[in-house]
Records
---
Amino acid sequence: MSIPKEPRQLMINVMYLVLTALLALNVSAAVFNAFEMVDKSLSSANTGLEESNSKLPAAIEKGAKKKDEYKTYADRAKKARQYAKEFTDYVQEIREHLIDESGNRDGKVDDGDYLEINGMKQLIGKRDYSAVTRIMVEEDKGSELESKIAEYKNKFLSLINDDEREEFAGNIPLQIDNEAWKHDLMKRKSWADFTFNHMPLTATLPIFSKFQNDAKASEAAVLNYLLGKVGSTDDLVFDKYAVVSSPNKTYIIKGEKFETELMLSTYASKSVNTKIAIAVNGRNIPLKDGVAKYVATGTTLGKKSYNVVATLENPTTGEVNKYSKKFEYEVGERSIAISATKMNVFYVGVPNPVEVSASGISSNKMTVGMTGGGGTIKRNGDGTYTVNVSKPTKKGEFAYVTVSAPGIETSKKAFRVKRIPTPTVKLGRKLGGGISNGEFKVNRGLIPVLEGFDFDARCNVVGFRMVRAPKRDDPRAAKNRGGKFNAETMALVNKAKPGDRYFFEDVKCKCPGDKYAREVNSLSFLIK
């Protein structure tokens, strides 16, 4: 079989669509696994391209010996290899720097950047987005990468003859979509901001693998072009094939269509009329430019599988080979869940954490709002939300958190709004009863305690009245402002003797969100 002239550009481009679709999903454990799967697939494709590309320069050099004017093509082949290596090494340095910065930050990628879980190595910083945002956006490494992509695309094109360069430019996949981010609803400032801002490490690794793949595919396109120029396209034979499925999504919503492109992971020759046929579950799929597109509607939920058989006939030898593989995808359903992180009630005067989870919906496309309770809702940097309310709801009234997103009905959840519960005032750890003389005297004030309250809130004692009733004397009273004993109150405490009784009455407290002080429990102690 003669050597093909073009690389597997369609396959690589569609694989990038997998990443784009996954980025649109809510980031769950399953999605992180999907990111890792895509990255491994791209890395495997990179290895295959590198192996194929490494054979081409020798064939070009052999063909260049036919004529003196062909020598320039052999020299260009060396430059194509050089440019690809320079760019992939540059991208690899970025990958490793991000892995290290999200890991143990010792200046290199090693075992310290991984954890072993169930016998498998997992990146420590797989969910970390701070290093990616800092390095790629704030330190502008993303803009540098954008410039490098444009620079090396021009370098690859410089190896093409002047009169063919413009037409050949479409064969160089090393480029970025510099228009999509300008139309994004989040109003991103740049391509780097659109691509890397607030993205977890695992989500960005396939992006870097994709650009490395683009560089190798660009190298392959140039090398095949040069090989055609020296007339040696029949000198190499590729004899290993594998079936490839490149779906737009590996996770779809019920009612959506599952769509994937199927092909052999090698080059389709244009110089020889090679016959390729692809069938899915026994049904033949039409091919266009060597690529078959399989479409299936997700009508039921769960994992789905499909078997692909690719048949290849060599027109020269008549030999027929078949290659088969089983693939899977999953059908899910859009849903939104709204939950208060701590309780199903909002409290006045404290920040109330709320989580909004959405299956099959990008968090960037969700609109979250709030009505009732004099409340406001704000999104936090980690994707959670904080609600602040100012007005308790009456019986039958509620505050609502609402969530809307394209393609689904607006979802809302009702919450009651309450004041912070009335605290229990204690003397030390005691609510009253018998107390030793020494234990009583070491206390310096009353302490309000919010029993079983899950929020970080602190109430304060506004004031109280203390009465000492000696065993053989008239009662004496003292008024105290605040929770700490004043001098008059402390003087009565220091006079405590066995048999005396102490009463703390008219105790009032004020909690966050309170306009007025509230009356709380009284205390009574008998000195032993």
---
Amino acid sequence: MSAPLLSIRDLDVVARSREGDRPLLEGISLDLARGEVLGLVGESGSGKSLLCRTIVGLMPSPALVRTGGKILLKDQDIAGADPASLRRLRGAEIGMIFQNPSSHLDPVMRIGDQIVEGIAFYRGLGRAAAREAALEIMAQVGFTDPPRQFSSYPHEFSGGMRQRAMIAIALGCDPELLIADEPTTALDVTIQAQILRLLMELRAKRGLSIILITHDLGVVAQTCDRIAVMRQGRVVEVGEKRALLRAPQAAYTRSLIASHPSMPVEDECGEVDDVSDHPVAATDVAGVAGTPAPAAAPATPGRPRPLVEIDDLRVCFPAGGGLFSRRRSFAAVDGVSLSILPGETVGVVGESGSGKSTLARAMLGLTPLTSGHVAFEGESLALKPRATRERLHRHAAMVFQDPFNALNPRFTIGETLAEVLRVQGKVPAARIADRVGELLDLVELDRSFATRRPRSLSGGQCQRAGIARALAVEPRLIVADECIAALDVTIQAQIVALFRRLVRSMELTLVFIAHDLAVVRHLCARVVVMHHGRVVEEGPTEAVFARPRQAYTANLLAAVPSIDPGQSLFGPDPRLTVSPVPGTSRQGTNP
């Protein structure tokens, strides 16, 4: 058996403070073979991202220090390498796709130029050749119009499009080892399948080795050769994917599998052992994967007035044009009509760029309407904009897709929640501190998080803080825009169970935007499918999922990764004939 490309031995990392050292990574030992794909799974805060940042020498804080262990890249210990050596390694030999693209893309630099910069530096190409290579990579990762989008800035893209740009930057440097930290988190299932297909093709053609951090066990089952499970800074289990998913040894691994919202509902990995020792209660797991979605609001004599009414809505944005040319525009939302009843749970699904988030922002008065009407509790945004916005601000809230950019970095989480409570005026000043604690309890965050700022939280923890802020409004309507995209499956189960309880107990109306169709199926009574700014299919969730009328909907469902590694995500594509990894069986290599 050949030597591994990467070998980690007894790696320890601590956080240093006045109170002493707090261990974050303890005794991590892992190997990565040449051409192998290793899946790294575990809860938010388990140390997955920190481990990979330690490998490339990009610690998120000076207070985090490696105190022991080795990191061998091709038998060279890079753990103690100087900054100049690490800079030469990053990009050329080790590429990294970060979890939060908004924090790693230059906001004042065009996307195409950011891709070209790495290609020109590491490949030694001229400007014209680097531009052609960048356009080719942009097409590979799912950009629909690379020549036009080459000149766009990050803020002009959706979260999914920014993630594609981040992937293009990493691939442009042609590294030997690629560390992908939740690379498909913000992507819809069809683009996720394209990205995963691309990574597998790159592994087959170039012998690329990949460490894939993800909370989606379906992605791991379909792409990885081996799986390493992390919890609280330790590796609790490592194994070949089929063996580990079929017969997990650790109770924590069994709880991860039990929490996966697989489609169909029946567990495809067999009987799940008892997971009562895990924070995710068995009732919460059943609430996601074992029971039907809440029924739609019942029809009553006279039919209740819709809480939200949308009629022939169009939202257009400028799309170029110069001083002597006619200014063009494109319709992000193009003629959408929709009614949402009080207490209803409505899922909105579709590819990235289909108009889901624009529809959500227009619904809450956060984006100007080009034409059409949006009414909330009978008040029209077009006819009475000021009064309707005031009503929306008091009775509706949004959970945004990007939790880091949605929270004020200068405020602690407690200060953020307290500000909302003070502005709303629904809670007496003397009770604000207690209410902040209650909100943190609701989203499963320890009350000590009230004193922490967003930069010290993981992606999942930050998103839960965003949900707490939405709940602080005591809303009648919550619009959740990809609110669980960055969460691991156990926390997803808790958040989905929380939404189900809120809908039942508070008569909450929920519009749930997601690319995870399995979660939508179990949470929402009705589903709306969007494509190119239009609603292409709508109806009861079970009916749409069981018998989709449109080919586009059928393709979305077919692209959902199954937790069963025997079911191919990619279909009969001859390009995915993957050579075996040295030292592994063909069965364990070809996903």
---
Amino acid sequence: MINVPNINQSAMKNNTGTVNTQTQSVPANASQTNNTPNYTSTIYPQETVSVYNPAENAPKLTHTSWFYVNDVHGKMTNMERIYNISKEFDNTPSDVMSPKFFTNSTDNVSKFKVSSGDVILGEEIIPNTVASQFLNWSGFIASALGNHELDITKPETFAKFLEESNYKMLAANVDINPKSPLADKIHRSMITEKDGIKYGIIGIAPPDMHERVKLNDTLKDFTIYDVKETINRVQAEARKLKEAGINHIVVLSHGGNKLDKQLAQETQDIDIIFGAHTHNLIQGITEGENLLYSKTGEPVIITQAGKDGENLGILNVSFDQNGVIKKAQNNIIRTRDYNRPLFIKDTVEHILGKPEIVGRVRSAVPQPKNRLIENNPHSNLITDAMRIQLGTDIALLNAGNIRGVFSQGPIDTRLLTDISPFGNKMMILELTEKQIVDAIKYGLKTSLTRASNKPGLLLVSGLRYTGNKQGDLLELEFIDKNNQVHKIDVNNPDANKKYTVAADDFFATGGDGYLESNKNPDFVLQKFDQDKNVLARDYIKSLNQPIDIVDDKRIQII
């Protein structure tokens, strides 16, 4: 039996302008879904407080249930589980799934499935095909354009994915070159109708897209607008929908939680913002946090379900006849509480191929709580493989590149792709000591002083460094191929001394800002048509088995 200990909370203004709140933690039991098409329901916890008087003359409500995901990041095994949960969502009556919220007949509960972007990840075509098909298989109707959707480097390839999709890709804050294959494939908004009610859905791409995406041909076709213009464009789109008689309007936002809060309070006519990009895990509904009020005083609810498909959400919302939210319940569900249906697993493996077992882990330390700003021992196998397999002095890798962990048991090629999924091309660079020190300093300062912690620390092999929580680089050591340690003066690094560096083309061309943005840098010595997970595969095969994942303190934050 699965225990789903959700905490649900609501706060809505009532007719007197005061706030009603209720918080309850109620264990819910559900039979774990198996590999057959028969699904049993998860009973979600206590409803949030209703803000209307359920008298005989109470206004008629429109009941909706929204199944939402964000930042799945190409995690295949979690996609398989999400598919499983989505079928339970389809097949279980809402008053059985949420009996304390939908207390009467649920014939009139309208169900929707939406994504706030970054379902795709990396350049590899075949895994991205599976990710796009996952949205089709699960029945999603729309997705925001995330930054990782633009990891697909060729616009014609991305256009083909969208031609084969059953969902709409949305972004109101971009303009696309009219000559691009993508010109008519990405929309500002869409209208969908359920049970006689029309709903408007608006998309937002990340305003910081250029910082988050490697220079490529797809990105060149886009003009992406800043936060201020993004809010203006979303408001204009919402006004247009409202003028068309649509008063149920939601936004699929890949702009981050700060932008979502601004949007909620600085616009009108928007009811729900399904958020993404900053990987927040927003549980329940809390006034001032994810229940805010528009310029006209109407409630706006914001959601976000973390990262990597570890969770998904079901937001239950009831609207009055004017399209104003009257009660709501936000449920967060752990995907690992569900099985991977065998037929979907087989379908994915038919597309991707059977994974190859390349090694075994005997023991592993826990993953860091925040992989962007902590030493991550699970990255060591990857960075060491980069350095050793390419025969360089050091290896450098942005922390955001590592998206999974090793655990006790077999290591297969699917796991390696899960941990390092981007499909970037490897390079050997020749960087000066000063370039290396500046890149490490940049990673420390930006990641430890920004609320988002992006882009993350620079992961290393052949180096050790210590920084403080203010983002200052205190010490740096180079460990040569004879295991001799050489201190580097972090205050006066040598601008003439050079090291060979294993890195990927995202880092080399200025991705995430560690180096200057340059599509064709002059310090590239050699290019390879493979990603680091291929190097990791061959490196792990060469090691004595089984392997221990240990914390060697190569990065310390004090």
